[in-house]
TrEMBL record, chains A, B:
Compositional bias ranges of the Acidic residues kind: 436-448
A Pfam family the protein falls into: MR_MLE_N
Residue ranges occupied by any Mandelate racemase/muconate lactonizing enzyme C-terminal domain in the UniProt entry: 200-296
Catalytic activity: L-fuconate = 2-dehydro-3-deoxy-L-fuconate + H2O
Example GO biological process: carbohydrate catabolic process
Organism per entry: Streptomyces rimosus subsp. rimosus (strain ATCC 10970 / DSM 40260 / JCM 4667 / NRRL 2234)
Keywords: Lyase, Magnesium, Metal-binding
Protein name, as recorded: L-fuconate dehydratase
């Protein structure tokens, strides 16, 4: 008889990187982000650990930590999740507590916190199985995968039978696709050239570098000033030539008419998609933008939950579905979204960047290829080359492609030294201030103190 | 020259009422709510106070308190809001901080917390003007009212010019309508008979009582069991007769097909509306429910923001717009929603109940009558007769009508003794446990300790 392991505690750490000091990550709506994570560690009696995170851009990261603590009692004390059934039950408990549900329902801080915990449980379970999450998912039967999904509010667009049919159709080719994935990787695009904070010379230099590095798609932030955008897009197009895709991203800056007018102006430079043209809640607005101008529409990094994705697909509002690993309620809800996209035949091109989002979301795109959509056609994962050094199993992109993770788990574990150094507000980087020398070495534990994080007792 | 008052601090109190002990408030999705409030008090240097709250149903109320604390620095230290311009600026700062916006955007915990602070500022400003909030709003010029609204993402449905035209059209009749409002009040309906936790005898008794009390509309919770709902609706209809409206409320229980099937079955008993048939995020789902069965559709208490309301109206998804005073970002966003509803000619029937929602939302419906829609036709405010005793200026409903508040402010001030007694987890009611005698009198301050609340320093 198997000995049951138990979750003995949940830690949550408020980790913030002072990225606003360099304007990395600046766009039309987010001029000075401090890329941050509400970083979660589950611990089990047998010494297992599961790591997850919620990405934020600074202020308010503490609110997400508070939400994690409010949800922690649903995790602490339960058997360590190991199977599809365990992970489905945990996801359900975290999203359907009748009192906590009032805080969303299924959106915003409470939902993001649930996602961090669900993802930490997936890290724990996949680590226990000795598989990276993409392979752990791709090893599950179609029936187990269907059991992960909460179909509430989806049945007018996707039923369990629909989902089963999609997964069964993809089952025969799984092994061959997994082998190709390991050999070839998964296409990436890079946003590094296109931040609004870059001057033109930097844009040109980084665009040229991106092509040299093997990327076939780059992305530019737009939306603050039309003349600037026209000039920057022209420069980028001249630099990369006609064969490299240039996506543009307005980060929700526009109303519908603004988006139509602006993109009509930019269209001659052949942007590959316009991302987040308007409010992420505005399904009908995205549909109007899509029909009102010639550039394809992408959105999803801020879509609150599967119900919003369902409607974007039902309304024909999007050409690309941009899942985010850490905004919805974790792997389970993203499996639902992958299945919805497959049902409607819309490619999934994940959002990444931030802190740890590349590490997490690569697993979901790779699972989609191996076991859901069965294709990489028109699909590409965002890549931003920063902050990976803080992870023990960082995303690896070479030749413009994500390489399939081989280490067990979700690639979500941060280095203990990084957690200690960047903990807000008391870590040495923050104590030292913008001009100080954080003097990172002395006095830092090589492993984080299990009780030093804000541990929630059993 | 006027002396400028300054906001010196923000308190937030986690106040919870153990309503789950009596099953008051039970419905198909919320079996055991503990009606709660993240209760906010602004204090000014000149001794002014502004009161606001966010309603929750128990667990997670602390997370909203954490969000209020994260937002408090935007309030503390600024001039005490007094004018439309001040209130517009505060609303903008609380909803458009570039880092905090990531937590929503404009939804969930962070947005609700912003709403509590915005509403507290309205309480402060109206109190300073010596007017109840409904009259304070109704005394503003159309131009000032338009200036309160954040039109971002609205312009495809409502422009500032549209809003100005609506408000100017209603301006000539304001004084006459205010006089009628003071004389006649505003129609109410009661949900007290219809909680799922009531047995049939209680349902019949309370329905009969409601009619005797002058209500022309009652509401029943449905959605857990169709046979039960058929029996309860039949009993209610037999009790109140054909001339009294019976609304039904599924509290988001169904998928689209369930809602269509269920309401087709209930239709012979002539329910007046079906409220929250499905996910509050599902604009297209509500449109499908509306077109798929004969009963009118109402929703809005959980609609996250003005963008969702905009789409519900654009899609023809609702017959009634149910604003909530404490889910969106306060008075300013509700003015936007009232204007959207007026533009589309859809009546606003506010959600209330909970803790303090009747007190707050009555002001918005009365303002709508006096200065926006100009009519009470097909309009009615929800009323639930509990927890009003904890407010210093409780909502007054007599003869089935809300009486227009006359005291200055937003009716949002809780009695200090109630705040102290029900504070979670350390108030005497919670310390005593379900069977204990809280022994409320000894040791409680008659006024809350200004530093005893979780005060956020300047």
């Amino acid at each position: 008889m198997a000995v049951t392991d138990t979750v003995t505690g949940v830690e949550v750490h408020d980790v913030r990187f002072p990225t606003s000091r360099e304007l990395t990550g600046s766009d039309a709506m987010n001029p000075d982000p401090d890329y941050s994570a509400a970083y979660v560690v589950l611990r089990t009696a047998a010494g297992g650990r599961g790591h997850g995170l919620c990405f934020t851009i600074g202020r308010g990261n503490d609110v997400v930590c508070a939400a994690v603590r409010a949800l922690a009692p649903y995790v602490t004390g339960r058997p360590a999740p190991a199977t599809a059934a365990d992970l489905a039950a945990l996801h359900r408990d975290l999203t359907h507590d009748s009192q906590l549900r009032w805080l969303g329902p299924e959106k915003g801080v409470a939902h993001m916190a649930a996602g961090a915990l669900v993802n930490a449980a997936w890290d724990l379970a996949a680590t226990g199985a000795g598989l990276p999450v993409w392979a752990f998912l791709a090893a599950m039967s179609p029936e187990d995968l269907v059991s992960l999904v909460d179909f509430r509010y989806l049945s007018d667009a996707l039923t369990p039978d629909d989902a089963l049919a999609i997964l069964r159709a993809a089952e025969p080719g799984r092994a061959a696709r997994a082998a190709r994935l390991k050999a070839e990787g998964y296409p990436a695009y890079t946003t590094s050239p296109g931040w609004l904070g870059h001057d033109d010379a930097t844009l040109v230099r980084l665009a040229r570098q991106a092509v040299a590095d093997g990327f076939r798609q780059i992305k530019l932030k737009v939306g603050a000033d039309l003349d600037d955008d026209l000039r920057r897009l022209r420069l980028a197009r001249e630099t990369v030539g006609p064969g490299v895709r240039i996506a543009v991203d307005a980060n929700q800056r526009w109303d519908v008419a603004d988006a139509v007018r602006w993109m009509t102006e930019l269209a001659p430079y052949e942007p590959y998609w316009i991302e987040e043209p308007t409010s992420p809640d505005d399904v009908l607005g995205h549909a109007a933008v899509r029909s009102g101008q010639p550039v394809r529409v992408a959105t999803g990094e801020h879509a609150a939950n599967r119900v919003v994705f369902k409607q974007l697909l039902q309304a024909g509002a999007v050409d690309f579905v941009q899942i985010d690993a850490a905004r919805v309620a974790g792997v389970n809800e993203n499996v639902a979204i992958l299945l919805l996209a497959a049902k409607y035949g819309v490619p999934v091109c994940p959002h990444a960047g931030g802190v740890g989002l590349c590490e997490l979301v690569q697993h979901l795109a790779m699972f989609d290829y191996v076991a859901v959509s069965g294709t990489r056609r028109d699909r590409v994962i965002e890549y931003v080359d920063h902050l990976h050094e803080h992870f023990t199993d960082p995303a690896v992109v070479t030749g413009g492609r994500y390489r399939a993770p081989t280490a067990p788990g979700f690639s979500a574990r941060m280095k203990p030294l990084s957690v200690a150094a960047y903990r807000f507000p008391d870590g040495p980087v923050w104590r030292a201030g913008p001009d100080g020398d954080p003097d990172l070495d002395p006095g830092l534990d090589p492993e984080p103190d299990p009780t030093g994080g804000q541990e929630v007792p059993e």
